[in-house]
Amino acid sequence: MNPTVADQRLTVIMTCHNRAALTERCVLQVLSEADDFSGSVRVVVLDDGSTDDTRERLEGLRGVTVAKGDGSYFWARGMSTAEQIALAQSPPPTHLLWLNDDVDLAPGSILKALSVSRKQPESVLVGATVSPILASDITYSGLVNTGPHPLRFSKAALGSKRLDAFNGNFVMVPTSVIERVGGVDGRYSHALADIDYGVRVKRAGVPVILLDEPIGSCAANEVTFGSTREEWRKFVGPKGGGNLKSLTRILRLITPHTWPFWLIATYAQWVRRAILRKIARSKLVRR
User: Fold this and answer.
1) Gap between the Cα atoms of 224 and 106, Å rounded
2) Tens digit of pLDDT for each residue in 68-108?
3) How many structural domains is the chain composed of?
4) 41, 104, 242, 243: which could join 235 in a potential S-S bond, CB 3.0 to 4.6 Å?
5) Residues 265 and 241 occupy one common structural domain
6) Distance (Å, rounded) from C-alpha 130 to C-alpha 254?
7) What is the DSSP letter of 220?
8) Counting beta carbons within 10 angstroms of the beta carbon of residue 200, is it exposed (0 to 12), middle (13 to 18) or buried (19 or more)?
9) Contacts of 229 (CB under 8 A, 6+ apart)
10) Where on the phi/psi map is residue 49: left (φ > 0), alpha (ψ -120 to 50), or beta?
11) Dihedral pair phi/psi, residue 85, rounded to 5°
12) Pair 209, 258 in one domain
């Protein structure tokens, strides 16, 4: 039997670091939607060692729990910790919503997702975001593997029926799915935990639905290039896609028998691109 609106208990989980204004805006947008919802809406924010006034802005807001990290949690461990806090609430939530604090929610987006979830109660729902500058530019969405590399993904267009993974900016997960598949893997250093979850739910046969309309706007991460040494440090650092611990973990999940090959291929590809960038820069300098 599909749950009624009153039966739905949503807890939004977020992790943040030194983005007080963005975090407060996002939480207030969630609470604004809660006023139009007959079920319950709560928010759990893992503040990962912010030195600004994030905590002061959030404490005291109705239905908001603020937990504290030491600055080393980053996205994966922060979301995993927030998830555990949310699942321990009484009464427990029926749904969790992963939400990045830099998402500017469109009015009614959470309520629309909950409405879809009532019709598809055992599905994971993914919301796409668009650029705040160009509304036709999808910045985060469901993902489709475009191979041959197991981590080569393209953003899915709205209306896509096939998803191989997803970005974690707006993801609604029924707690019944968490009981079946497990939660966010906090053993990743930062990135790739959302890709990990997409792979796991797909393998478990859980339907993943990309909502028909964007749920709001979110600027894409800015790509800047410094020296080759600086770029390498970023790539293999805690937040980089080439972090050895995280990269090994995701490749072993997706390609358990050939992961060493793809690990080497990933680093070789990075070196190739770095060399090509260096050649391109030297040509510009000569001009």
Assistant:
1) 29
2) 999 999 999 999 999 999 999 999 999 999 999 999 999 99
3) 2
4) 242
5) yes
6) 28
7) P
8) middle
9) none
10) left
11) -65, -45
12) no
